[in-house]
Design goal:
319 residues; alpha/beta; seven-stranded mixed beta sheet; six-stranded parallel beta sheet; 9 helices; 16 strands; globular
């Protein structure tokens, strides 16, 4: 099979198209012939040798969609020819096919395309656990969503709005703020203004922060008493260590640093999140924005594109 393999860490040029062998699925695994793979910033970090860097050589990619071609011993509930998607693979999606633990695969209904499924699994399940589990949103609350025109941010805005939450969206340009309003945000502000705007409305119940270092301190100031700082990413850099007493001084605040892997621990939990997303897409209640689709052989260009931080939606690889 053809796959993109890295044998060293570095820039996009280390992503090389190779012909690699593919073994049959092991017990508990299913083999998936991919149609699309999703790109995420964690792929960039792994390529560079940073966060979650795999042992080399490695095939990157945590997310994709395709068709089951074979199942290993002991696998139940999946059959050859079934359409599936995944978003929590350790790696391996930059390839024509991959063997994955069967429990990590979510069946894709006919009402959802392969492109939509590949685009929504990692970022969509992240938005789902943030809004339904880490902080279960309720009508009438105020939520700050950073990078609201980005992949996770845009989904967070839509999910929060459909729950009756007032969304205060932030972004780095007027065009991106306008897009956040189109997705359902009632309030918008730049990164230097959101905290004061939140306080004008009584303070946020929760701040969903995937930006990190550049927004964290102001995010604490945006919260109301006993509000929750939900730090789920670090696009601008890691947040320095803080004194827990600061949380007390700013109103008895809560702080959490969650990751999808801890909110998709079982097949039941993973498929609950995926089935909700697919149902909302089918009903027209969740828009999945696909920005660009690159052929597998152009993966280096795709990495350069997402590193430019000008995307207005999901970037996919076609296989």
């Amino acid at each position: 099979m053809q796959a993109i393999q890295i044998t060293e860490n570095g820039g996009p040029e280390v992503l090389k198209l190779q012909e690699l062998p593919l073994s049959p699925p092991a017990p508990g695994e299913a083999q998936v012939r991919l149609t699309y793979a999703g790109l995420n910033f964690v792929d960039v970090y792994q390529r560079q040798g940073g966060r979650q860097a795999p042992r080399l050589p490695a095939v990157l990619g945590k997310e994709g969609a395709g068709v089951v071609t074979a199942v290993g011993e002991g696998v139940e509930g999946l059959t050859a020819g079934q359409r599936v998607a995944f978003g929590t693979a350790a790696r391996g999606a930059y390839a024509e096919a991959v063997n994955l633990p069967a429990w990590q695969l979510a069946p894709v209904p006919d009402s959802v395309s392969d492109e939509q499924a590949a685009a929504v699994m990692l970022q969509g399940m992240t938005a789902h656990y943030l809004t339904h589990s880490t902080f279960a949103l309720a009508s009438g609350q105020l939520a700050v969503v950073h990078a609201a025109a980005g992949g996770v941010g845009g989904l967070l805005v839509q999910i929060a709005a459909r729950l009756g939450v007032t969304v205060l969206a932030t972004a780095g340009s007027p065009d991106k703020l306008a897009l956040a309003r189109e997705l359902g945000a009632q309030l918008t502000a730049g990164y230097d203004q959101f905290a004061s705007l939140a306080r004008e409305h009584g303070g946020a119940h929760v701040v969903y922060d995937g930006v990190g270092k550049a927004t964290f301190d102001a995010g604490l100031d945006a919260l109301r008493v006993r509000g929750l700082m939900c730090l789920y990413g670090a696009a601008s850099g890691a947040v320095p260590p803080i004194d827990p007493q600061l949380l007390n001084e700013k109103g008895g605040l809560f702080l959490t640093r969650p990751s999808l892997v801890y909110y998709a621990q079982t097949a039941e939990e993973l498929r609950w999140r995926a089935s909700d997303l697919f149902a909302w897409i089918a009903a027209g209640e969740l828009k999945v924005r696909i920005d660009r689709v690159f052929p597998l052989a152009q993966v280096a260009d795709a990495h350069r594109y997402i590193e430019g931080r000008n995307t207005l939606g999901k970037v996919l690889l076609s296989l």
